[in-house]
Design a protein that fits this description.
Blueprint lengths: L2 H16 L10 H7 L7
Helix pairs in contact: 1-2
Length: 42
């Protein structure tokens, strides 16, 4: 996987965990990944 894809997946998994009691079950990670935009600063 690309660095960008890995970063998106990591952010999505962390966000999913933050929304739940306990750890994520990864059921919403793909949906969250689609909402994450990575932008490179100059």
């Amino acid at each position: 996987l690309s660095l960008e894809k890995n970063l998106k997946r990591s952010i999505a998994a962390g966000s999913s965990t933050a929304f739940r009691k306990g750890l994520t079950d990864f059921s919403d990670v793909q949906e969250l990944e689609q909402q994450i935009k990575i932008q490179e600063e100059e």
